[in-house]
Write a structure and sequence with these properties.
It is built from 18 helices and 18 strands. By secondary structure, the protein is α/β, with parallel strands linked by helices. It has a domain of 130 residues: Rossmann fold (3-Layer(aba) Sandwich), CATH 3.40.50.
């Protein structure tokens, strides 16, 4: 523990929690506390509080009292323990409440009880069952007259871990590494420091995010936070896991947290249209939105950056190698396109291709949805089983087949791929999907999902901030993240 403490201090950590219950024998405070490289929080959590302490309760309380006598900067006390341990010396008292099951409805009453236990800091950690639990917790932190660290656990609680400082928390909790997380949803020190720039988040920081389910695989937080840092903007971008049917309530609750924009992806692109009557672009025709943003007048707008990003990506693949882009030329006109999928991305790309004069055929694993999209676009439908019977100049995969972690799957067997066909896979993680690899082996031209992903993200960044994002920078960030490509020192600096 002493060695790890020294290493963390050298890494820039300014305050360390020493979990005494994680030691496999009685801790020797005379070795842990003298000469410590940073201030410390002494915590010894018992089994009933999801800790590892196996001694008696009296031994635990005696150990905490000894830490106070030896001048530890902070001790962490549960409500009942706080009533048995008196204030002494300069040690500050963190009075904690943990609930690993839910975020209870009586948070205010719980906070009031802890406030009666002579705290310097109150700590509330609860499990988020719905996204709006984050807003309830953070609004309580903001109202508290006593410094309060409040956040929700679990993957749905990540936004509150990042934003608790914005609302007045003196610090937040992080893990030294993914393997050493001590609570569900806990972020690492490097993630909070480098990715989310936690130390720079303040009351005026603008909040953005991506709503999806699942959301953990999304690279949008990486792209946008790096772009915010590059542009020197006081903004943070969060992953927000939102189960189906909870988009509207999440959207409403997060507005109290300074929300100014959202990227919208599976499964919410269609539902996002119902959140505002102000639309930018042909959203009603497409039937899906992937962007929500707040304008200077305080009005929420919906937009779709997928369709233009897709058209540009397809044009790039159809254009002769090395040819200069001609804005007057329509590369898609007259092309026969097989569209795999019928979700939000397929709606945007299908509409754009039809408007460009292409002959589109839709296929989908669920025939009902596929037929509905084909009818909407005024194009042909072919069953999933017969998707190989349609001759195409272009094949576009709009399904999630082949997405990490299911990287050995493909929506189209290689015997259905013909030489010279352009294959565009909208999956970007991994970039080299099985479909892309097999297409190249069969002599097809290919466009990967990275191209569309960075182009739609750049347009979202412009909607959010009014500034332009560098496509080259975004490509480098994505490719480094998904393939661990070594980046030169110059590129690393450019990526922020």
């Amino acid at each position: 523990m002493t060695a790890e403490h020294q290493a963390l201090a050298q890494h820039g950590v300014e305050l360390c929690e020493l979990r005494l219950d994680y030691l496999n024998r009685a801790p020797e405070l005379s070795r842990l506390l003298p000469g410590r490289p940073t201030p410390v929080v002494i915590t010894c959590r018992r089994d009933s509080d999801r800790g590892l302490w196996r001694g008696s309760e009296e031994q635990r309380l005696t150990l905490i009292r000894a830490a106070i006598v030896q001048g530890a900067e902070y001790v962490d006390l549960e409500e009942d323990a706080a009533k048995l341990i008196r204030r002494y010396g300069s040690t500050k008292r963190i009075i904690s409440y943990h609930n690993f099951e839910e975020t209870p409805g009586d948070l205010e009453a719980i906070h009031a009880r802890l406030a009666d236990c002579d705290p310097d800091i109150i700590r509330l950690a609860t499990n988020a069952l719905i996204p709006s639990d984050n807003a309830r917790m953070l609004n309580l932190v903001a109202r508290s007259k006593i410094p309060t660290i409040g956040f929700c656990m679990g993957d749905m609680g990540v936004p509150s871990r990042v934003l608790t400082g914005k609302f007045g928390a003196p610090f937040t909790y992080a893990a030294p590494s993914k393997e050493r997380a001590v609570a569900p949803g806990q972020l690492t020190y490097d993630e909070l420091k480098s990715l989310y720039r936690y130390d720079q988040i303040g009351p005026e920081t603008e909040v953005y995010g991506v709503v999806a389910d699942p959301v953990g695989h999304s690279l949008s937080p990486l792209l946008h936070n790096k772009s915010f840092a590059k542009s020197g903007l006081d903004c943070v971008y969060l992953p927000i896991r939102v189960p189906e049917r909870l988009l509207a309530s999440t959207f409403e609750s997060f507005q109290s947290l300074g929300l100014r924009g959202l990227s919208v992806t599976i499964p919410h692109k269609e539902a996002a249209l119902a959140l505002t009557t102000h639309v930018d672009g042909p959203l009603q025709e497409i039937g899906a939105a992937n962007t929500l943003y707040l304008d200077e007048a305080g009005t929420w707008w919906a937009a779709n950056t997928d369709y233009l990003a897709a058209i540009e990506s397809l044009a790039l693949g159809l254009r002769p190698e090395g040819a200069v882009p001609d804005p007057q030329r329509n590369e898609l006109e007259g092309k026969r396109i097989l569209l795999l999928g019928a979700g939000g991305v397929a709606k945007a790309i299908g509409w754009a291709c039809v408007k460009a004069g292409a002959a589109v055929t839709v296929t989908n694993r669920t025939s009902v949805r596929g037929k509905e999209l084909a009818a909407r676009l005024g194009c042909q439908f072919v069953s999933w089983e017969n998707r190989g019977t349609t001759f195409s100049d272009v094949i576009v995969n709009c399904t999630s087949i082949g997405m990490h972690p299911n990287v050995d799957e493909t929506p189209l067997p290689d015997n259905l791929l013909n030489e010279g066909t352009l294959v565009f896979d909208t999956v970007y993680n991994p970039e080299q999907t099985m479909l892309i690899r097999q297409s190249r082996e069969r002599g097809c031209r290919t466009v990967t999902g990275v191209e569309m992903f960075v182009r739609q993200a750049a347009r979202q960044f412009h909607y959010f901030t009014g500034e332009e994002a560098s496509l080259d920078l975004l490509r480098k960030i994505v490719r480094k993240a998904i393939s661990f490509v070594k980046v030169s020192p110059d590129e690393e600096g450019e990526a922020g």
